[in-house]
Amino acid sequence: MTKILVLYYSSYGHIAQMAEAVAEGARSAGADVDVRRVAETAPAEVAKAAGFRIDDSHPLLDDVNQLAQYDGIIVGSPTRFGRMASQMAAFWDKAGGVWFQGQLNGKVGAAFTSTASQHGGQETTLFSILTNLLHFGMTIVGLDYGFQGQAGVDEVKGGSPYGATTIADGDGSRQPSAVELEGARYQGRRVAETAAKLKA
């Protein structure tokens, strides 16, 4: 059975919701899916002042060596000034040994994100994640246009050919929409399907 990791960091709960949808999509393709989060690295007083939600909805993954047991890894992070959050970057920065040993070469990688606005760095944040995954030798799966929900301008919505996205608004009040969650499910399914083909 194909084994997929959905690895995320979430400050306000938007990425945690998207991670659940991504996992649902991967499971719908028959994959065995683990959803894990990376550790909070912001000082407690900073996190409190910023109104971060304490996230204990999924277990922590703190051992980078566990990455090698997966056939596909789907990484979710909110944007921080057009790039992945430092919490997620810090996790991957510890994985030099995994990179050196080529443990992720040929496995499937993907990314999803959340920003405050439609033009708040969605694609650059996805690319900051995907660049990392490419350096680890991974084969990238985006949110292809088989998912028609990302087309059109009838409503405010995330979505990019580079990965599923959601828009949170400046105060974080907007939650992932039905279309955005369906995009996340679609991408999760495509990752699982691709990983299964590569593993065969």
Specify the biggest β-sheet. Answer: 6 strands, parallel
Average pLDDT confidence is 95
Question: Which value, in Å, is the CA radius of gyration?
Answer: 16 Å
Instruction: Please mark out the parts with pLDDT under 50 across 5 or more consecutive residues, or reply none.
Output: none
Number of helices: 6
Distance between the termini: 10 Å
State the secondary-structure class. alpha/beta
Element order, helices and strands?
Answer: EHEHEHHEHEEH
Given the C-alpha coordinates, what overall shape results? Answer: globular
Helix share of residues?
25-40%
State which percent range the strand residues make up.
Answer: 15-25%
Structure summary, number of beta strands: 6
Structure in words:
There is one protein chain. The protein is α/β, with parallel strands linked by helices. It has helices spanning 14-28, 44-49, 86-93, 96-100, 122-135, 178-199, and strands at 3-8, 32-37, 72-78, 108-115, 139-140, 164-167. Strands 1, 2, 3, 4, 5 and 6 form a six-stranded parallel beta sheet that branches. Helix 1 packs across helix 6. The model has no long low-confidence stretch (mean pLDDT 95).
